[in-house]
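To: structure desk
From: M.T.
Subject: fold request, one chain
Message: Could you run this one when you get a chance? Sequence is below, nothing fancy, just the single chain.
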Amino acid sequence: MSQYVGKTNLAYSRAWHLVDVGADPRPLGRIASQIAITLMGKHKPIWDPSTDCGDYVVAVGLHDLHTTGKKRYQKKYYSHTTRPGSLKEITMDRMMEKWGGSEVLRRAVRGMLPKNRLRDDRMARLKMFEGVAHPYKQNIIKDYTRPSIAQQPVVKVAFAQQKQQ
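Reply: Done. Structure tokens follow.
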């Protein structure tokens, strides 16, 4: 029996996922790890570390990216051109002002992906936008921006009634 039984072209098809960072209550690291898993394809049953079977991710609302603690003002990003004396540092707050939240999210996700030949191809499938408008509305299949069940109006009313009793 072949080892490829059950691995059809449909299993390798790429879905499009939408993540609204501004509406998501999770901090930067939690969102970035979920995006990295989706880009790698680890959420699929056919995942293999040597194949690129991940999906597309569209991240919107990056102007409202939030972190916990004082990371926004204390975390520093370093760059070096390999020339003597060329070490440069920039804080996360300054990077958000200069390039926006997309650069911060890009660096976070890139650091969570495996350091191999597939990393650039996976990062190319991450589409980031500062606002909520994007040109991929027709492609979106899965939406991670749905509120949790506790945030739905029907459940909020039920919780309020339960507290009153």
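Reply (cont.): The chain has a mean pLDDT of 89. Let me know if you need anything else for the meeting.
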